[in-house]
Amino acid sequence: MEICTRILGNLHAPEWKERLPELDIEYIPIDQWTAQKSRFLAVGERGTEYPIALRRQTQVVDGDIVFHDAPARRVAALRLELNPVLVLDLSALEDESAEALIRRSVELGHAIGNQHWPAVVKGARVYVPLTVDKQVMLSVMDTHHLEGVRYEFQPGREVIPYMAPHEIRRLFGGASHGSHSHPHDHGHDHGHDHGHGHERE
């Protein structure tokens, strides 16, 4: 098998998404920590070996295509075991005054920025990658007590469909080994709603 030296595209990108029905895809499962490396030997679900040797500083994400045989319509794409993502929902503030919305947004930005957490904003939701222990992140949010802002952890794979490739890289491309949460944790956590001051079951 030839050495895979570059990312050829991403299955989540529009130009590849529309071609999925016609492609024979072999997925290559790797964990999020392996995804931080630029050189590693990957093994696809069918047992095919794919030597990966990318340029330094290249960070792979879920759906990255490392092999493409155009005549055979075969591709090999990475399938990452993704960390959960903290999703903050501000939709309850949409009926508030502009002043209240701005104030809460600034408070939220301050809370996240103080922790140096990266974030992706999509509509009324803010997505924050898991960077430390889940309970630590929830504790930080609880401490700031942001009225009307609901938050919960969602499985990374459920978040992916809403993201563009560059946003996926922001959420999953630079996770720290400092996380104490298991990277295979795909369950939902209880949501928090500071408009009511209790956890949602």
Description:
By secondary structure, this protein is α+β, with helices and mostly antiparallel strands. Helices cover 22% and strands 29% of the residues. The protein has five helices and twelve strands. It has helices spanning 14-17, 98-114, 134-144, 156-159, 165-172; strands at residues 9-10, 24-31, 39-43, 49-53, 64-69, 74-81, 85-89, 120-122, 125-129, 150-154, 191-193, 198-200. The strands form three sheets. A six-stranded antiparallel β-sheet has the order 8-9-7-10-11-12. Mean pLDDT is 82; it is low at 175-190 and 194-201.
Quick overview:
The protein has 201 residues and is an alpha+beta fold.
Properties at a glance:
alpha+beta; 4-stranded mixed β-sheet; 5 helices; 12 strands; elongated; disordered C terminus
Order of helices and strands: EHEEEEEEHEEHEHHEE
Structural class, by secondary structure, is alpha+beta
Number of helices: 5
Helix fraction?
10-25%
Name the overall outline.
Answer: elongated
| Main sheet: strands, sense, barrel | 6 strands, antiparallel
Radius of gyration: 19 Å
Beta-strand content estimate: 25-35%
Poorly predicted spans: 175-190, 194-201
Strand order of the largest sheet: 8-9-7-10-11-12
Q: Give me the count of strands.
A: 12
Task: Calculate the mean pLDDT score and round it.
Answer: 82
Distance between the termini: 50 Å
